[in-house]
Amino acid sequence: MRNPSAYSLLYGGLLACFSLSAHAVSQIAAAGYTDLDGNFVRENVTADAEPSPPGTPFDRSVVAVQAGDPNGAFYYSASADIGLLELKVFGQIDNTAQDAKANGEIGVLSARAELDDVISLHSDLATPYEVTFELQVDGILSIVGGSANGFASINFGPTSGADAFDSSFYSSDGAFSDTLSVTKTFTGNVDADIGALLSFTIFAVDPNAIITGALNNTATLNLILPQGVEIAASESGTFGVPIQPVPLPAVLPLFLTGAAVTLAGGFRRKSLAPTNRSAA
To answer: Which chain regions cross the lipid bilayer (predicted)?
Structure first.
């Protein structure tokens, strides 16, 4: 069998490249799958993205997926919230009393959440200024008896130039806390790409082992702006601004009730009206 650890690094690198190559499209996405028999055929595939179709206005500020049973053989969940600036990912395989499972290339379970946007910065400063973009990742991993890792990356930079990025792998048992950080220097008003990705992948599970990755303690995004600089707008229209469900107007039930009464009354008057027939 090929070395799962080597492929986990390759997988994470590919995810990082994907996040950087796709950052120009404003989107939030969550997805996951399993390949429990290791035959390279993804099973239990779920995905959710906003906006749909791409390039249209955002209707939601959060997307989420989940599959499996928390008390069963597998379970995963993922969510991306551009309004609250949070990413959450969880994955687990319970291999109790079963044969070993492995797929070093694509993993036997994977879940990911990501967001990308373009923000417009307005500056009152006459000199260049620095803006820092951070992702705070907190989680708990239990990977004794197998191979798995978490991965996080961020990218940030002017739309007219190259992005800077930061990324980390997480593969040690226990709780962890990490901060990814990118600082860019801008001058005047500018549009900037901003993106983040969080994932957890299980590559191999020994018999009678349980592998868990709880990166759903919330990975929080933070944009640090100097005084005199503010976010004027975002391409998605939702960066840091949760979209609330449209409430049912309070007068709508009364309107519908009144309309029903009016229609019923009209029908009753029509049925009671005398019939005018011509004499035979």
So the answer is: 246-267
Q: What is the mean pLDDT of the chain?
A: 85
Q: pTM, whole model, 2 decimals?
A: 0.81
- Pairing state of beta strands 146-158 and 101-102? unpaired
**What are the pLDDT digits (tens) for 68-110?**
999 999 999 999 999 999 999 999 999 997 789 999 999 999 9
Burial of 117 (0-12, 13-18, 19+ CB in 10 A): buried
Query: Secondary structure of the chain in the HEC alphabet?
Result: CCCHHHHHHHHHHHHHHHHHHCCCCCEEEEEEEECCCCCCCCEEEEEEEECCCCCCCCCCCEEEEEEECCCCCEEEEEEEECCCCEEEEEEEEECCCCCCEECCCCCCEEEEEEEEEEEEEEECCCCCEEEEEEEEEEEEEECCCEEEEEEEEEEEEECCCCCEEEEEEECCCEEEEEEEEEEEEECCCEEEEEEEEEEEEEEEECCCCEEEEEEEEEEEEEEECCCCEEEEEECCCCCCCCCCCCCCCCHHHHHHHHHHHHHHHHHHHHHHCCCCCCCC
Return the percentage of the chain with pLDDT > 70, whole number: 79
Beta bridge partners of residue 134, listed in sequence order: 181, 222
Distances (CA, A) of 176 to 84, 146, 168, 257, 279: 22, 19, 12, 57, 96
Residue 204 DSSP label: E
In this prediction, residue 55 carries a pLDDT of: 86
- Is the pLDDT at 266 greater than 50? The verdict is no
